Every structure is written in structure tokens, then in C-alpha cells.
Recover the amino acids of this structure.
């Protein structure tokens, strides 16, 4: 099996949101994956993870 990055794995996911969305869908997916792997269980915990690590996630 060929190795792929998270971005490459999810690049075919269609974004059903309007084009004026604040964040790219792939950024939200990556943040959610990182949050869940780190122990987040709820949407609120995922949101808090993203807020606390905003600088790290934007690299």
C-alpha cells in the first residue's frame, strides 16, 4: 500500500459548504483527527483543541 499524507488521503472529499467558508475543509478534518487522537470526545473538546493549538496547526 502506498504511503500518503492526511491531505492526500482526504483530497477527494467534496466540500458541501458555501465558498465563503472561514476555513478549508481539509484543515478542519486534520484538526479533528489530531484532537480525537489526543483524546477529544466531543465537538466542544475538538473546538477547544483547535483554539489552544491554533498556531501549531497553522504551520
Amino acid at each position: 500500500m502506498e504511503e500518503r499524507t492526511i491531505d492526500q488521503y482526504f483530497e477527494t472529499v467534496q466540500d458541501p459548504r458555501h465558498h465563503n467558508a472561514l476555513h478549508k475543509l481539509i484543515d478542519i478534518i486534520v484538526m479533528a483527527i489530531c484532537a480525537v487522537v489526543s483524546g477529544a470526545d466531543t465537538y466542544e473538546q475538538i473546538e477547544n483543541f483547535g483554539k489552544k493549538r491554533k498556531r501549531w496547526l497553522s504551520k
